[in-house]
Specification:
The chain has 121 residues and is mostly helical. The chain has 7 helices and no strands. The protein starts with a helix and ends with a helix.
C-alpha cells in the first residue's frame, strides 16, 4: 500500500490517511473488527498470511496469534478503504484548493497593484 500512497500527491495522500482512519474507527463502515469485516479480511488473506498464522498457532503463542489476526484485518481494510476512498480524497483536496478567500483571482493578479483595491469587492 505504501507504493500506492507514494504514487499520490502528498496533499491527497495525507487527506486519504485521515479519511481512512476515520472510517476504520469502531462502528464505522470499514471497522476491521466487526464480525462480517473480520470474516471478509480472513477470506481475502493471502497464503503467506495463513502460513504465518498456522505457524503461530502451532507454536501456541497467544500474543503473536492475536497480533497476526489484528494485522491481517487492519491491513486488508486499510488497503481496501484507501482504494475505494481515493477519489473522495482527491475531490476534497481539489475543493479545498478551489476555495481560498485570501487568494487573488486570476484576473486580479493580472491587474496593476494600484488598480486592485479599486476593483476589489
Amino acid at each position: 500500500m505504501s507504493d500506492f500512497l507514494n504514487s499520490l500527491p502528498k496533499a491527497v495522500a495525507d487527506t486519504l490517511l485521515i479519511m481512512v482512519s476515520n472510517e476504520m474507527a469502531q462502528g464505522r463502515k470499514y471497522d476491521p473488527f466487526t464480525g462480517d469485516n473480520l470474516w471478509e479480511a480472513m477470506a481475502e488473506s493471502e497464503q503467506a498470511q495463513y502460513d504465518q498464522l498456522a505457524g503461530l498457532l502451532r507454536a501456541n503463542d497467544p500474543v503473536a496469534i492475536t497480533a497476526a489476526l489484528h494485522l491481517i484485518a487492519r491491513e486488508y481494510w486499510f488497503d481496501y478503504a484507501c482504494r475505494v476512498m481515493v477519489a473522495d480524497a482527491e475531490e476534497a483536496v481539489a475543493n479545498a484548493e478551489d476555495y481560498n478567500p485570501c487568494a487573488l483571482e486570476r484576473w486580479e493578479r493580472d491587474l496593476p497593484a494600484l488598480i486592485r483595491p479599486q476593483v476589489a469587492w
